[in-house]
């Protein structure tokens, strides 16, 4: 067994190093020859039919539900030193406390806010820092809310911005419009794979919220990768 392990480990490290070098080389060559690849945003709209906009926003804004509404192969765990900051965010972003003021002058939240997580994707763990840039209630007829956060630290080399728009649904209840604008490696292979993974995660989250939590909605529209 010792001899097998002695052979296996150097071989594994050699193959891993070769894959990394190949990936980095391909990325460099693609950007040099073609330019940076920018994937289309991931967009999905779904309803939470049994919730009004205040109730729907209270659900969508909650970072604690991120890990609960994702599959087993994708984990998003709040790090201990961010628990207090998230508790403060939830208290100050309560829909009952938020003014309908797009200027943000009367918003009790002092943005940006930073939350740290451990992210686990396909058994690969890495730190993730999220930066909340918008959290507001608009003074319009549909009682619209917006929550936007972006990657402050993580694996998306070209950036990651996730925006939630919550507003009244024409069929009753609430509608959530989710948009993720991202770029992992600025080349099409990883970016296209990531597009489908993110789309799957958003759809799965919608189904989990409506099936397990009984919010009575469904997916009503999404964009197809090009």
What does this entry show, briefly?
This protein is of the alpha+beta class. The chain contains 5 helices and 8 strands, in the order αβααβαβββββαβ.
Report on this structure.
This protein has helices at residues 2-33, 53-60, 64-68, 83-92, 188-212; strands at 42-48, 74-78, 113-121, 124-137, 145-153, 159-168, 174-183, 219-222. The N and C termini lie far apart (49 Å). 23% of the residues are buried. The protein has five helices and eight strands; from the N terminus they run αβααβαβββββαβ. Strands 2-3-4-5-6-7-1-8 form an eight-stranded antiparallel sheet. It has 226 residues and is α+β, with helices and mostly antiparallel strands.
C-alpha end-to-end distance: 49 Å
H/I helix tally: 5
Helix/strand/pairing category: alpha+beta
Number of strands: 8
User: What's the SSE pattern?
Assistant: HEHHEHEEEEEHE
Largest sheet: 8 strands, antiparallel
The largest sheet has its strands arranged as: 2-3-4-5-6-7-1-8
């Amino acid at each position: 067994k010792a001899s097998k392990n002695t052979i296996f480990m150097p071989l594994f490290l050699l193959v891993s190093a070769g894959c990394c070098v190949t990936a980095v080389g391909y990325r460099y060559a693609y950007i040099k020859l073609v330019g940076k690849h920018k994937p289309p945003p991931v967009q999905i709209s779904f309803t939470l039919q049994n919730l009004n906009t205040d109730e729907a926003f209270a659900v969508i804004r909650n970072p604690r539900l991120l890990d609960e509404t994702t599959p087993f192969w994708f984990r998003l765990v709040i790090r201990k030193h961010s628990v207090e900051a998230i508790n403060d965010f939830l208290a100050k972003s309560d829909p009952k406390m938020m003014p309908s003021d797009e200027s943000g002058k009367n918003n009790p939240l002092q943005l940006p806010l930073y939350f740290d997580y451990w992210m686990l994707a396909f058994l690969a763990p890495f730190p993730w820092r999220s930066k909340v840039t918008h959290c507001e209630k608009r003074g319009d007829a549909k009682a619209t809310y917006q929550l936007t956060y972006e990657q402050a630290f993580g694996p998306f080399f070209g950036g990651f911005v996730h925006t939630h728009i919550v507003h009244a649904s024409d069929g009753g209840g609430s509608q959530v419009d989710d948009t993720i604008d991202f770029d992992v490696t600025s080349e099409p292979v990883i970016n296209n794979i990531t597009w489908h993974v993110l789309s799957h995660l958003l759809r799965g989250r919608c189904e989990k919220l409506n099936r397990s939590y009984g919010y009575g909605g469904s997916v009503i529209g999404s964009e197809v990768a090009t």
